Amino acid sequence: MISESTQGPLAGALREWRTRRRVSQLELAVRAGTTQRHVSFIESGRSAPGRSMIIRLAESLEVPIRERNELLLAAGFAPAYPQTRLDDPRLEPIRTALERILQGHLPYPAVVVDRFGDLVSANAAFHKLIAGAAPHLLLAPMSVPRVLLHPQGLAPRIANLDEWAWHIIERLQAESARNPDVRLQDLVSELRGLAPPRPRESPDHLGLAVPLRQRAHDPADTRELTLVTTLTHFGTAVDVTIAELRLEAFLPADEGTSAMLAELVEP
């Protein structure tokens, strides 16, 4: 997001990103291969950087490529990174790769989501995992965090809802703080309203991994799934759409869960 300032939109936005990343002008200059004086002049509006310098500064601050385009536009340059619709024929190799990854995770649930947690694609195991959620929660665009924490979604079946809900919320809060967006902030506020009080006692996992302990959809089945999640993204993508995709896999934390997941996706 671009912030206006008396020195101009680029100067204010660059300073805002540097402050958010907690990087000094000197450190940024070293990373970008320039001088502290030049960075200072850019942030004060006394110097107008070229296109390549803006990209180098943005890369050095790990600015998401969508926002790098905004920095370029603020300086009067054309965007450097395309944003291609995922259904564009040019992205067929990416779509194929994602579907193969999702299928490769079977019988374990896995999803691909966008920057807001909206579902892009999922394998059969994930659809089995959320079976029983209210139909209105499953309409496109389907918010995966909302389905997980909503009282008409998975929430009633999550044995450690207080712990799991705040794990999800804090992860989204961290993303929102790192890369601010109004829609993401609104989602965090909504989920905070759905979550139970934050647990007072320290969890047994000591912050290394928060398990999802989910009861079966069938009340007669007293078994419980224990899952941990992993997140993967395209770290070298130069297309906005691809760079914002996230693959989340739900992996079994014990042999019993592994066996239950295998049963879940049996034909």
Automatic annotation (TrEMBL):
<protein>
    <submittedName>
        <fullName>Helix-turn-helix transcriptional regulator</fullName>
    </submittedName>
</protein>
<dbReference type="Pfam" id="PF17765">
    <property type="entry name" value="MLTR_LBD"/>
</dbReference>
<dbReference type="InterPro" id="IPR041413">
    <property type="entry name" value="MLTR_LBD"/>
</dbReference>
<dbReference type="Pfam" id="PF01381">
    <property type="entry name" value="HTH_3"/>
</dbReference>
<dbReference type="InterPro" id="IPR010982">
    <property type="entry name" value="Lambda_DNA-bd_dom_sf"/>
</dbReference>
<feature type="domain" description="HTH cro/C1-type">
    <location>
        <begin position="14"/>
        <end position="68"/>
    </location>
</feature>
<dbReference type="InterPro" id="IPR001387">
    <property type="entry name" value="Cro/C1-type_HTH"/>
</dbReference>
